[in-house]
TrEMBL record:
InterPro entries listed in its UniProt record: FAX/IsoI-like, Glutathione-S-Trfase_C_sf, Glutathione_S-Trfase, Glutathione_S-Trfase_N, Mito_Protein_Transport_Metaxin, Thioredoxin-like_fold, Thioredoxin-like_sf
Top-rank lineage group of the source organism: Bacteria
SUPFAM superfamilies per record: GST C-terminal domain-like, Thioredoxin-like
Pfam families linked: GST_N_4 (PF17172)
Domain GST N-terminal span(s) in chain numbering: 7-77
Gene3D superfamilies, per database record: Glutaredoxin (3.40.30.10)
CDD domains the UniProt entry points to: GST_N_Metaxin_like (cd03080)
Name of the protein in its database record: Glutathione S-transferase family protein
Coiled coil: none
Length: 240
């Protein structure tokens, strides 16, 4: 049995991390039996989630989880796609993970209102007298990471300009298809499905969400992915 270690449902989402959502989509696509468990970042070898454990072997990172499932179980997640389409979907995945992810992190962690609505909930187990200090230290580390990536050195307007170009690329790649894989989702749908599902939560004051909502093809796609893979989860609710 495969065990997926993740954060668990939060923010009206199957998981607050798009990477954990991506990993679970891959597991559902694989058809393999699995169970979920709330992970412990302190015990995660790379200090991050998701990770899976199978037969005593721990695999960290959503991309390496995919590689493991492909190699261990002989799965071709993008079966039926030609080399050009496979390459386009891999490039799309890395654009989301290496740029859009950080735009979303900046919105949720560095904006005081969004932090209070969302990430601050992670710190409830911290004793109340220490909580403000711990939150400040973690947010400072997040800001350093966002700045170190480079996206944090851009103004909010500049970040949205990059996001617009990325979303337009997604619309072009999706085209008239129901999924990025065509009539049915493939492995290359896991990342775009995860990031768009995450982006559309109404909990946050999110200019990025507004850009997604302006592109009906992407909102419809996100709805199909959520219905197909997480129909049992609670639907999104308005932050109000």
């Amino acid at each position: 049995m495969i065990t997926l270690h993740h954060f668990g449902p939060a923010f009206g989402l199957p998981d607050p991390s798009p990477f954990c959502i991506k990993a679970e989509i891959l597991l559902k696509l694989s058809g393999l039996p699995y169970e979920t468990r709330i992970g412990d970042l302190r015990r995660a070898p790379k200090g991050k989630l998701p990770l899976i454990v199978e037969d005593g072997v721990t695999i960290c990172d959503s991309s390496f989880i995919r590689f493991h499932l492909e190699e261990r179980h002989g799965i071709d997640f993008d079966a039926g796609l030609d080399a050009e389409r496979r390459g386009a979907l891999w490039a799309l995945e890395k654009m989301l993970e290496d740029q859009i992810h950080w735009i979303m992190v900046a919105e949720r962690w560095l904006d005081d209102g969004n932090f209070a609505r969302g990430p601050a909930q992670f710190f409830k187990p911290v004793p109340a007298p220490l909580r403000p200090l711990v939150c400040a230290l973690v947010r400072r580390k997040v800001r350093r990471n966002v700045d170190g990536h480079g996206i944090g050195r851009h103004s909010p307007a500049e970040r949205l300009k990059l996001a617009e170009r990325a979303l337009d690329a997604m619309v072009a790649i999706l085209g008239e298809h129901r999924y990025f894989g065509g009539d049915a989702p493939v492995g290359g749908d896991a990342a775009p499905g995860a990031f768009l599902i995450a982006a559309l939560t109404p909990l946050f004051d999110s200019p990025f969400r507004g850009l997604v909502e302006q592109r009906s093809a992407l909102t419809a796609y996100a709805g199909r992915m959520r219905e197909r893979f997480f129909a049992e989860e609670q639907p999104l609710r308005s932050a109000a």
